[in-house]
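Entries read chain and fold; for instance:
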Amino acid sequence: MTRWTANSLVRAGVSSAPGRFALRVARDLASISLIDRGMTIAAHVFTSILPILIVAGALRSRLDPQTGPIFAEHLGLDVPTADILEKSLPGGAQELRATGVIGLILLVIAATSFARALERSLRTIWRTPSVSIKFAWRWLVALAAVVAGLGLVVSARILVVGGGLVAVVEFIIEVVLWSGLWWLTSWIVVNRRVSLQQLLPGCVLAGIGFSVAGLVGKSFLPPLLADSATRFGVLGMAFTYIGWLLVLACILLIATTIGRVVYLTYTGQAWRRHPADVRA
């Protein structure tokens, strides 16, 4: 009965263009191990990107003592909760604060693991072959692009604050910044084997998804993190934040997958067998 129902849904789906599009997206999402890859990216962000932001925030605080913890600005947390979250990060955030520039350089080198994880995911989605280690420079460039992009998003949230029309402008700015961040980063990590035109639909969808997630996160994430800190301390906050990073990673992977199907559908290649689909 279940098989008959599934077959009926498939037959009904292929009879219309939206149905064929949805089936192609579902097939591609099933082939990339969404949750596994999302958790891998989330873990690398937690152990690589966030400590870099902490160090950058610490260096900035030395120049301007009036600035608060970067998580307080980015997530809308109060200062005590933001401090607890910073202490929950692996890699010794307090030690990194003390080592300053040297610690930041060492951390950046180690943080290329995030870029490699992102590259593996994008290569799986776009069916592109691996590249030689001589192109390892792109991991550092991609990492720099992500950190710079996050800095711009945080700056926009600080500078553009208000309700009504201002809130709409803030949302549009965030969409543009997130889209540009993932557009450039994706193009770098796949070593330009996928064109900017091909990447654009997925990156725009990712920008919209991250901006919407930012609005949702501002409402429920601060009290959730504060409650986790009260009940379970540092460990509770770490698990809660990793869960949020998993949501964001899945948004990126889903948006990229849908964007690829959008491009293939637009160019009439969605159901053709071509070199991009040879590798699974």
In short: Residues 91-96 have pLDDT under 50 and may be disordered. Residues 27-270 form one domain.
